[in-house]
């Protein structure tokens, strides 16, 4: 194809491997710090076919002293100018920077270094600035080439028009025997295809017309040459003055795989005329256009892949996603992640619960407690350390702080509050404070989705049980005895079109008919000095109990969150000893299985039972009369209760029933 | 099962063939030490008009005693594709991704998307007749994550 126009060159684009930024960040922080003087780096381009426009790649090995030795890749020496401020980055003289880089190429031509190392004819500059607080990386690549050197194009064609297959095979054999560090630019004899290193131009000065001027090309467009030919022209003009103004035959080597065979079929013969005028280039061009096609820098944010906190969050989420992909495709992880959890009590149970919640990917956890970390705590309470005791830190705050140390992605807060209790009179002087505390607790409950009752006293559970019910929250409860535990979900209130199925041998209790922690208790809190197996008067427990109960109460909460009926999910209570819930029972379960009402465990026999109890109409915490009293009288009602728990018994009619025997424990013995 | 010695041997063999084919596989890391070296290749690919760089690594998994294929995908600005983006690019949408996970690279100690090695051992037994089970395995599982070995590699199996 005869043409009489100027040869067009396809510029390089930049391609940055992620490992480059990792290394760059490391060097900036540990070595260069505020240094701006420029750092030598390596880039690489490939002469093996791809469907892409030519690019120079940089990666972590770019910072090595010696360039990587990779078959098919040619090294280019470049320079990185990292600025300390965005102003320095913006104000930097870009024309000057690329000219300096071009002048260096020129130096390497006239001082002869390019003769031995032809790769020095190529170069690149990177101007950069990193905002390492935001992980924003600004950068601009330049690939210097003289601005005013043009080639008048006569012919550009596939070499297959010129050579037969045997000749191309011979060319490839000779080419592959050439060292990688000589493949950038070299000479090929036109008759017998002998290849000579570039330095031979000096000796062959008078017979250069017998040679093709050859180069490895990163460009695969059959109509254009790659960028590297520009600087090659400059070199030829300098060393081969006889070629000035003359027609020169170039070979653009492009390696491709054709039907499984390495081939030079895509290589080009370019016949073009060098200009006559020659001198040191005045101006150099080559700054890369950005993604908008403008002459300007690019910016990339790498927070998600460099910021360790983001890496931790991604890893935690991914772990849960694997569970979803492999085992539970229908699990709603977002629902769990977004669940706001309030932990009332930051002791053994609170610590265990928080950790298991973290494991499930919960991100919002609030702690409430009224004591400080004591010396006996850290060995049993998994969020505390010895230092916390020495510092006398409030438990809620210490738990919140330490949870963040375990996983910075969590939003944890601690509140130092003493929850007001029935039968603990409020004096004139503490009235205002008590009111504030009640308001604060109410707000915390209103703001949360799931409330965990994990305190070490029975009385302190009364107020949050009531508030959780009134504000429609999921309330879960864990209580410990010496070697026993109780884990339960409180019943919810309201109506639902829940068409729950009965299962033979089981009694089914809908979620809105389930009882609360106090439903099984015949007496009001406040005078609980008598022994109870599951009461909180007993703070001596087998150390494993809190871990077991803490884990169970979270797993129960997660199951509720995954049940389509949520807190309305029914519980099944075994009526016949032989009855079993099996796969095909029409049980209203969730993807994680059945939802019991409560779990009672006995470490002395290593057994666990799953009793379910209906709400008790005279319950001192969840019965309608109590809820109604709070709704109408609010704090005034609460205050009466705080001052005398007898109020509760009177209101619910418990006083008259006081003589009745405690028959609720039957549930438990029955089901064994 | 494949012990480290065998793994390295097959690795070198594959690398030599790659050099002949100019296929771009390189051995990186420390070759002398156990579980110190791995095979790596970068594959540029256009996706929705953007250049993406697939970086494939064949590493050795000590606990399973099998090879493991890891990869990461980058844009030209160095940013890394997240797992969901990778899944989209690889055309997994809608299908459960049973074996793709993210694990720390045993040599680089950075997270890589990884085809989980739990089933690899069975597969390796299956291709025990191959002279290079590493290549047989890689040519079988590679395509699931966009890595297609050239037919010429079959000459060493
Ligand atoms: Zn109740």
Automatic annotation (TrEMBL), chain A:
What range(s) does the THIF-type NAD/FAD binding fold domain occupy?
A: 323-577
Q: What is this protein called?
A: Ubiquitin-like modifier-activating enzyme ATG7
Q: Which family does it belong to?
A: Belongs to the ATG7 family.
| Compartments where found | Cytoplasm; Preautophagosomal structure
Q: How does it assemble?
A: Homodimer.
Q: Which residues fall in a coiled-coil region? A: none
Claim: Cytoplasm is one of the keywords in the record: yes
Name the keywords, alphabetized: Autophagy, Cytoplasm, Protein transport, Transport, Ubl conjugation pathway
The residues covered by the Ubiquitin-like modifier-activating enzyme Atg7 N-terminal domain are: 7-305
The keyword Transport belongs to this UniProt entry's keyword annotation = yes
The record's listing under CDD domains reads: Apg7
| Lineage: superkingdom | Eukaryota
- What function is annotated for this protein? E1-like activating enzyme involved in the 2 ubiquitin-like systems required for autophagy.
User: Which InterPro entries does the annotation name?
Assistant: Atg7, Atg7_N, Atg7_N_1, Atg7_N_2, ThiF/MoeB/HesA, ThiF_NAD_FAD-bd, Ubiquitin-activating_enz
Where this protein primarily resides, as one coarse class?
Answer: cytoplasm
- State the Pfam families in the record: ATG7_N, ThiF
Lineage, opening ranks:
Eukaryota, Metazoa, Ecdysozoa, Arthropoda, Hexapoda
Automatic annotation (TrEMBL), chain B:
Q: What InterPro entries would the database entry show?
A: Atg3/Atg10
The alphabetized UniProt keywords are: Autophagy, Transferase, Ubl conjugation pathway
Q: Please state which protein family the record places this protein in.
A: Belongs to the ATG10 family.
Q: What is this protein called?
A: Ubiquitin-like-conjugating enzyme ATG10
Gene that encodes the chain: LOC108558932
């Amino acid at each position: 194809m005869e043409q009489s126009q100027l040869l067009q060159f396809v510029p390089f684009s930049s391609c940055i491997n992620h490992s480059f930024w990792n290394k760059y960040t490391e060097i900036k922080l540990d070595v260069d710090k505020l240094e701006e003087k420029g750092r030598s780096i390596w880039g690489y381009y490939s002469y093996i076919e791809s469907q892409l426009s030519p690019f120079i790649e940089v990666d972590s090995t770019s910072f090595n002293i010696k360039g990587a030795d990779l078959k098919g890749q040619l090294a280019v020496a470049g320079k990185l100018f990292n600025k300390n401020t965005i102003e320095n980055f913006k104000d930097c003289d870009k024309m000057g920077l690329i000219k300096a880089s071009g002048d260096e190429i020129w130096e390497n031509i006239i001082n002869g270094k390019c003769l031995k190392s032809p790769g020095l004819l190529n170069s690149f500059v990177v101007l950069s600035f990193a905002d390492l607080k935001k992980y924003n990386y600004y950068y601009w690549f330049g690939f210097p080439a003289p601005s005013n050197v043009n080639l008048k194009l006569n012919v550009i064609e596939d070499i297959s028009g010129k050579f037969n297959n045997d000749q191309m095979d011979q060319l490839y054999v000779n080419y592959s025997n050439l060292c990688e560090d000589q493949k950038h630019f070299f000479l090929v004899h036109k008759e017998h295809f002998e290849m000579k290193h570039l330095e031979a131009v000096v000796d062959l000065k008078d017979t250069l017309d017998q040679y093709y001027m050859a180069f490895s090309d990163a460009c695969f467009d059959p109509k254009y040459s790659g960028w590297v030919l520009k600087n090659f022209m400059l070199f030829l003009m300098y060393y081969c003055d006889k070629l000035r103004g003359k027609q020169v035959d170039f070979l653009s080597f492009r390696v491709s795989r054709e039907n499984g065979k390495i081939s030079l079929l895509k290589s080009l013969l370019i016949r073009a005329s060098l200009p006559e005028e020659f001198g040191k280039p005045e101006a150099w061009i080559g700054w890369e256009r950005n993604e908008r096609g403008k002459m300007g820098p690019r910016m990339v944010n790498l927070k998600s892949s460099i910021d360790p906190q983001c890496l931790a969050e991604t890893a935690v989420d991914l772990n849960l996603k694997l569970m979803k992909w492999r085992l539970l495709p229908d699990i709603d992880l977002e629902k769990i992640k977004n669940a706001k959890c309030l932990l009332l009590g930051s002791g053994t149970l609170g610590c265990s619960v928080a950790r298991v919640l973290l494991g499930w990917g919960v991100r919002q956890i609030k702690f409430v407690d009224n004591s400080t970390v004591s010396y006996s705590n850290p060995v049993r309470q998994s969020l505390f350390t010895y230092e916390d005791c020495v510092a006398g830190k409030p438990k809620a705050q210490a738990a919140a702080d330490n949870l963040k140390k375990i996983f910075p992605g969590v939003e944890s807060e601690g509140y130092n509050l003493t929850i007001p209790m029935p039968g603990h009179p409020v004096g004139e002087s503490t009235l205002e404070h008590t009111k504030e505390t009640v308001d604060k607790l109410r707000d915390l409950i209103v703001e949360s989705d799931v409330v965990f009752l994990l305190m070490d006293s029975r009385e302190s559970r009364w107020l949050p049980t009531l508030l959780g019910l009134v504000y429609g929250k999921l309330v879960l409860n864990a209580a410990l005895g010496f070697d026993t535990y109780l884990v339960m979900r409180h019943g919810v209130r309201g109506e639902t079109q829940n068409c729950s199925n009965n299962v033979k041998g089981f009694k089914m209790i809908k979620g809105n008919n389930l009882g609360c922690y106090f439903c099984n208790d015949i007496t009001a809190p406040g005078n609980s000095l008598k022994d109870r197996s599951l009461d909180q008067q007993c703070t001596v427990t087998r150390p494993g109990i809190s871990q077991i109960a803490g884990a169970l109460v979270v797993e129960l909460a997660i199951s509720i969150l995954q049940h389509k009926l949520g807190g309305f999910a029914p519980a099944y209570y075994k009526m016949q000893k032989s009855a079993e819930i099996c796969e095909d029972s029409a049980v209203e379960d969730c993807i994680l299985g059945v939802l019991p009402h409560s779990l009672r465990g006995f470490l002395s026999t290593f057994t666990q039972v799953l009793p379910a109890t209906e709400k008790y109409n005279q319950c001192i915490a969840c019965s309608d009369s109590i809820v109604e009293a709070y709704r109408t009288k609010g704090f005034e009602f609460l205050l009466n209760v705080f001052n005398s728990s007898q109020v509760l018994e009177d209101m619910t009619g418990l006083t008259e029933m006081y003589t009745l025997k405690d028959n609720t424990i039957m549930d438990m013995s029955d089901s064994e | 099962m494949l012990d480290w010695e065998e793994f390295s041997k097959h690795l070198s063999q594959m690398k030599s063939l790659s050099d002949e084919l100019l296929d771009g596989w390189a051995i990186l890391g420390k070759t002398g030490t156990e579980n110190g070296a791995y095979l790596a290749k970068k594959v540029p690919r256009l996706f929705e008009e953007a250049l993406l760089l697939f970086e494939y690594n064949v590493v050795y998994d000590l606990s399973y005693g099998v090879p493991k294929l890891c990869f990461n995908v980058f844009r030209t600005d160095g940013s890394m594709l997240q797992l969901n983006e990778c899944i989209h690019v690889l055309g997994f949408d809608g299908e459960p991704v049973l074996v793709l996970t993210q694990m720390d690279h045993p040599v680089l100690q950075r997270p890589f998307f990884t085809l989980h090695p739990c089933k690899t051992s069975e597969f390796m037994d299956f291709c025990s007749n191959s002279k290079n089970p590493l290549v047989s395995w890689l040519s079988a599982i590679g395509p699931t994550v966009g890595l297609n070995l050239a037919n010429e590699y079959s000459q060493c199996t």
